[in-house]
Design goal:
Elements (H helix, E strand, L loop, with lengths): L10 E3 L5 E4 L5 E5 L2 E2 L8 H9 L5 H12 L10 E5 L5 H8 L3 E6 L3 H9 L5 E5 L12 E7 L8 H9 L2 E12 L4 H14 L4 H14 L3 H5 L13 H12 L9 H10 L2 E6 L7 H8 L7 E8 L6
Parallel strand pairs: 5-6, 5-8, 6-7, 8-9
Antiparallel strand pairs: 1-2, 2-3, 3-4, 9-11, 10-11
Helix pairs in contact: 1-4, 7-9
The protein binds S-adenosylmethionine.
Length: 311
């Protein structure tokens, strides 16, 4: 399933089995802690830190989130081949592996160490450190490819979308969740804040994110102040700190419209393209969501790759 990032040749396990070797160009790639390392960490160091530091796996919540953000019932994935594009600490890869899926989780950061540990008990789960922008995974074979909150953290979200879209087999499904573009004043303020926070060392930013997590406990602020500047209102404090760091630390963070994401699907040859609605409901929530006022909310689309399985 894996290909040489340098020449696209097939990879096999070398002797001793702590490395992969390319059958075409003989390039060697280490396997460390059970994880093939086909790329270095590059610009995603904050993610390696955050996913290894915070334990965010919450099985019930993860299952509900997976259903909402992929439009797929994990129970339907038994025996299916699935690509988790940007698996982070591996909470969703583990979930679907537990439901019998054959899953490859790809991430560029050292979060793969956490993901591999979470998935260790499942022999059909493989975690790989690799770059979605030059994805060293065979094309056109996956029953499902999903990417939850990832592509907007790359320097080229459209290019990364094309890479993962081409891994879906004809008749297979792709589901993608990206940050929603908010109103111009919100976008402007967020860019100004992040221009400062992304320059801070993690050791300084983390206590700030921990302090901000206290705001998330105050219901009135959750409905007012966080329409101006983002902070997490998750009921669990560990997740609030992690969410805040996840927002203010990463080097890249782009925001997108629903039409833009739907167009990407169509342009890459997908049909049955449909918006996946958010988990939250209610008239006020719907109104603010549709008017792009909820910072940190998403645009979420699914589609089926056109073509028969034989093609
Ligand atoms: C917000 S996290 C989401 C992780 C996971 N999908 C989840 O929801 O728990 C974004 C992830 O994208 C990964 N990422 C960013 N750019 C990437 C790239 N070019 N290739 C692979 N992974 C990338 C980061 O390392 C990070 O773990």
């Amino acid at each position: 399933m894996l290909r040489c990032p340098r020449c696209r040749g097939e990879l096999s396990i070398a002797e001793p089995p702590t490395r992969l070797v390319c059958r075409s160009c003989s390039q060697l790639y280490p396997i460390a802690e059970g994880v093939p390392r086909l790329a270095g960490e590059s610009y995603v160091a904050s993610f390696g830190r955050q996913w290894n530091r915070y334990d965010v796996m919450r099985p019930e919540e993860d299952e509900a989130t997976f259903r909402v953000k992929t439009g797929v019932d994990p129970r339907d994935l038994s025996g299916r081949l699935v690509l988790d594009a940007g698996c982070g600490g591996g909470r969703y890869a583990r979930l679907i592996a537990a439901h019998g899926a054959r899953v490859i989780g790809v991430d560029l950061s050292t979060a793969v160490d956490k993901a591999a540990a979470l998935c260790a008990e499942f022999s059909d789960a493989l975690i790989v450190q690799a770059d979605l922008l030059d994805l060293p995974v065979v094309a056109g074979v996956f029953d499902l490819v999903y990417s939850i909150g990832v592509l907007h953290h790359t320097p080229d979200p459209r290019g990364a979308f094309a890479q993962i879209a081409r891994r879906v087999k004809p008749g297979g499904r792709l589901s993608v969740w990206l940050y929603r573009r908010n109103t111009p004043p919100q976008e402007w303020l967020n860019s100004a804040l992040r221009a400062a926070t992304t320059r801070l060392p993690a050791t300084v930013l983390e206590p700030i994110c921990a302090a901000m997590s206290l705001l998330g406990d105050i219901p009135v602020l959750n409905r007012t102040l966080n329409k101006i500047a983002n902070f997490s209102s998750h009921p669990d404090r560990v997740l609030r700190v992690c969410d805040n760091f996840d927002w203010y630390a990463p080097q890249y963070q782009s925001h997108h419209s629903l039409d833009e994401l739907k167009r990407w699907f169509v342009d890459e040859g997908f049909g049955e393209v449909a918006e996946l609605p958010p988990a939250k409901a209610g008239r006020l929530y719907d109104w603010t969501y549709r008017h792009n006022l909820i910072i940190g909310s998403g645009v979420n689309v699914t589609g089926v790759r056109v073509g028969s399985e034989q093609s």
